[in-house]
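Hi R.,

Here's the chain you asked about this morning:
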Amino acid sequence: MEARIHQTDPPTGCGRWTWWAWCLWLPGCVGFGALLAWVAFEVGHYFAPLLVYPLMIGFVLGAAIVALMRISRMGHRPTAWLAVGFSVAVAVVGQHYLSYRSALDEAQRREEAILHHASVAADDLIVGELAPVSAGLGDYLQRQADEGRTIRSVLGTYTLHGSMVWLSWALDGLLVLLPAVAMVAFGLRRPFCGQCGSWYATRRAGQLDARSAGRLAELFEWPLENAVHGAHFRLMSCDRGCTPTGFSLSWGELPAAGQPGVVWLDDARRNRVVEILDQACKQPRNPGSPPNA
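And here is the predicted structure, written out as tokens:
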């Protein structure tokens, strides 16, 4: 009979506010948002499916922010959410600004062509053409809204005007924001150790035979019938192991009734679990049984 062990409190560490996060990491995320705006603007000339395209932009932006968090070990959650807000704003507004600059450049090329091939009397025409474009980004967007936005979908082609164009732009921005928020929120679910400044990661994982899985189930007072077909285990911790260790068992397709997804163990309890895992690795296996980590 295994001595029962119980989980300890989960880690509650959060990264500290640092100057480098604000001066380097946050501007880096915003810079990636600007880069993504440029890529989205260029690709949008050839491929921009309705509704799907802004969702793709949001997913890429959110995944990039999470990756930068992991690589740079930035665990300050308020800074992460600021990065989401600023990066999404830059990615969305940046596409409109690039469209404005493209229209302005096109108007300037028209001006040069007219000056090259026409007389000075064409100046009045030039001013009339350039004024709506060069008056500023806000004036350009209002002009675009007045002229209308063509929406092409499988249901047909529609042209929006006025406030409906602004509403469609707001919807595009929302479709960028939502997946970015979802990706970062999912990334922030992983614990962060405030002592050594590292994100939790899987340190050991593998398959267990039914006997070893049963010992662990008995250890945590979980239903033993789940362990009939063995289990998959996972141990996760920070880099230095200075905070509780996470441990989980999954039983394949069987429901984990009466069992938490992750239990948190202090050093003594972690050592007991590791002892059982080590014994499982050393014991002989039957042919066809899954390997242990």
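One quick note: The chain has a mean pLDDT of 82.

Cheers,
M.
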